[in-house]
Amino acid sequence: MSAAPAGKRERRKHQTRAALVAQAQRLFRERGFERTRIEDVASAAGIAVGTCYNYFERKPDLLIAVVLDSDRTAIAEAEPIFDSLPDDPAAALTAIALHDSRHSMAALDKPGWRHLLAATLEHPDTAFARSYAETTLELRGLMIRGLTQLQARGSLPADLDTLGVARTVFAAKYMLFIDHVSDDAAPFSQHEAEVRQAIDIVVNGLLGPRPS
Predict the structure, then answer these.
(1) Mean pLDDT of 151-158
(2) What's the CATH architecture for 58-204?
C-alpha cells in the first residue's frame, strides 16, 4: 500500500528538481548568474521559495546542478561515439573530448562557467561540488573506455596504461576548456582546434608517431 504513494512522491520530487534546474539554466543565460536570485528561479518554476531551498541551499548549487544534468546527458549520449570509434587513438580521444566540451557549452555560457569553477574551488566539500568532481571522473572514464576499446581491436598495445593516458589527455583538455571560458571573444572553433592539437601532441609523445 505504501509503495505507490512513495513512488509518486519520488516522481514529484524529481519533477520539482527538474523544473528548478531548467528555469535556473534559462535565467542564468538570460540575466546572468549574479542578477538571478533563487527567488527568481522558484517563481519561474512555480514553486515556493522555501521548497526551492529544500533542494538547493545556495545559488551556486543550482549552477552546479545544471552542469551535473548536462554531464549525465553527455555520458548517456556518448554511445554513438563508441559505435563508430576511429582506429586512430588521437582521433578517438578528440571525438570523446569534444563531445564533452559541446555539452558543457550548451549547459552554461562562459560567465556561468567562470562562476561554477570559482564555486567548486571555494567550496569543494559541498555535496554538489563533490558530485561535480565525481561526474568529472565519469567523463574521464569515457576516455578510458575508448582506449580499452582500441586495445581490444589491437590498435593500441595491450600493456598500455589507459588510466595514465586518459588522465593526461583529460587534464590537457580541461585546462584548454578553462582557457576557452576565460576568453569571451574566443570562438568554439578555436577550442576545437586547440584540443585536436593538444591531443595529437600527447598521443605522439606517449605512443610515438603513428604510421601515415
Answers:
(1) 94
(2) Orthogonal Bundle (1.10)
